[in-house]
Design a protein that fits this description.
The chain is an all-alpha fold. The protein is built from 13 helices and no strands. It is globular.
Length: 298
């Protein structure tokens, strides 16, 4: 195998890896860890392990989903532009799948160690997250095809991951964490919805029945605004209930929503920028949300 071939395979793998999406796991795990420290129950070793496990799970989800989308002939955004065809293409897809399973394996090893330290409820939380992520496009469930992706990622990569991170670091469960997780979880769903809006015409042509295809672009834009309002309005509700220490800082994230909103109304082929833009918003909002808990009260 010559150097140009290696470069093409690495580029195909990197495309499947979707490094930008690791913002989701970093934000969700980061919030759970931060809340544990805020409650005086932080533990550095467990915090590092939880963050690593979350990133490994997200990586495994990305690679496994890329593999299943290839098998389901959803391939226009995969590797054709790299001129990888026939048997070579089949090989790189299996490499992508195997590396995804390797990331799952690393996450499972860390998870088992944390279960040994914390207790079996963590095993249930971790297993639910890994299985749910795998079946996003994996058969026989493939809940993206069933229009359930936007709903389920709210729980799997939002509420469940945040609550699991908190439990793994603190060693306790807290109903308060459930409520606090809602704004960030809403934005996780917003990311997936943005992805579906970007691909609307392509999904219609190929018969992929995502939530956006089922609801139509107009209703999907309304849902976009609703999820954004749930994040910012939910923060205000948490503040009023005494569960969020400061309010104004979080609204510095609003300007980062402007570009994604403008992308909602662009024609096919011109909405690609919506994903990096909405990821940037998620990063800014989540960082502000987490840091707010460490700003001293007056």
């Amino acid at each position: 195998m010559n150097l140009p071939d290696v470069k093409r395979y690495v580029r195909a793998w990197w495309s499947a890896f979707r490094a930008i999406s690791l913002v989701i796991a970093a934000a969700s795990c980061g919030l759970g860890i931060a809340l544990a420290y805020y409650d005086g129950r932080g533990d550095l070793l467990r915090a590092v392990l939880v963050m690593a496990a979350g990133l490994f799970i997200q990586s495994g989800v990305n690679l496994a989903n890329d593999f299943f989308e290839f098998k389901q002939r959803n391939i226009e955004d995969k590797v054709p532009h790299l001129a990888i065809f026939g048997r070579e293409r089949e090989v790189i897809e299996w490499v992508i799948f195997a590396s995804g399973m390797a990331f799952y394996g690393l996450a499972a090893l860390i998870g088992l160690y944390l279960v040994w330290m914390i207790g079996y409820p963590l095993l249930i939380l971790g297993a639910a997250g890994m299985v749910g992520g795998y079946f996003y496009t994996g058969e026989p469930f493939n809940y993206k095809r069933r229009g359930l992706g936007v709903v389920l990622v709210f729980f799997l990569m939002g509420v469940l991951m945040i609550g699991g991170a908190y439990y793994a670091v603190s060693g306790t469960l807290s109903p308060r964490v459930l409520w606090v997780s809602i704004p960030v979880s809403a934005l996780v769903s917003l990311i997936l919805l943005s992805n579906e809006i970007r691909d609307f015409e392509y999904d219609v042509r190929h018969g992929f029945r995502t939530l956006t295809v089922r609801a139509g672009p107009g209703r999907s834009r309304i849902l976009f605004y609703f999820l954004a309002a749930a994040a910012y309005g939910g923060s205000a509700v948490l503040y009023a209930a005494g569960l969020f220490p400061h309010l104004l800082f979080i609204y510095f994230g609003l300007p980062f929503l402007i570009k994604p909103i403008l992308s909602l109304y662009k024609r096919e082929g011109r909405r690609k920028q919506i994903i990096p833009d909405i990821m940037l918003h998620h990063l800014v909002f989540s960082a502000l949300f987490i840091v707010t808990y460490f700003i001293p009260r007056r």
